[in-house]
Amino acid sequence: MEQKWPQEIWLVRHGQSAGNVARDVAEAAAGHMIDIAERDVDVPLSELGMRQSQALGSWFAGLPEAERPNVVLHSPYVRAAETANILMRSLNREILLAVHGDERLREKEFGILDRLTTHGIAHKYPELYEQRQHVGKFYFRPPGGESWCDVVLRLRSLLDTISREYGGERVLIVAHQVIVNCFRYLIERLDEASILAADRAGDVPNCSVTSYAFDPEAGKRGKLVLRLVNFVAPLEASGTPVTVSKDVPAAPKA
After folding, report:
1. pLDDT, tens digit (0-9, with 9 covering 90-100), for 18-69
2. DSSP three-state, residue 183
3. Which domains does the chain have, with CATH numbers?
4. How do residues 82-118 score in pLDDT, each as one tens digit?
5. Cα–Cα distance between 242 and 10 in angstroms, integer?
6. How far is the C-alpha of 115 from the C-alpha of 253, rounded, in Å?
7. 45-79 residues labelled b (16+ CB within 10 A) or e (exposed)
8. Which of 79, 86, 160, 240 has a beta carbon 3.0–4.6 Å from 55's, enabling a disulfide?
């Protein structure tokens, strides 16, 4: 029987972005707005984010060629595309079967809460703030935006594409914090409580790796098995600071 799933999937959150830095400054000052002019889609990597991407790229380059990614899928957002491009510099481009930006990997859309800090959400939209606290982040959808459940639905479509087109391949996915968590929800078949508990335990670090490998002995027909979670050893080994800043913007945790 032909293998349905990739041989390996690496989920990588983009390197630190200028938006992450601006958000940290605003939150530390108890401000209401994140001071960044670009659209969220256009926010670039910070200088540190570039260094983090280079450190992770060196780690991928150190893998045997037969174990390196040969398919790269990334969010079209600038910070994710820049991270993917830096990582690809460390790969042998001759072995790459496909490189695609895919809109299904975009950041969760925040709608009218875009660029607001936690303080700003509570101040400007107190009823929405209270509703979100009651409903929880998995199902809460801000006006004009998405819930985690909405993100899961588009990622189900992407997993169908991956299983159809990249069975047996080694797939690197570069995206955002919520995307990493929602992939975990799908691949590990978690429930709402489990993935939100993982989210509360800590943010997904920039340029961290969460990975799965196909095990033909697992389940009835083989399945993807978790190997790494928020792996940051490549950054630590190179002396590159590890950051866990949220993407812009971030509502308070449930």
Report:
1. 767 656 665 666 666 666 777 889 999 999 999 999 999 999 999 999 999 9
2. helix
3. 8-20+42-108+146-238 (3.40.50.1240)
4. 999 999 998 877 789 999 999 999 999 999 988 787 7
5. 18
6. 16
7. bbebbbbbbbbbbbbbeeeeeeebbbbbbbbbbbb
8. 240
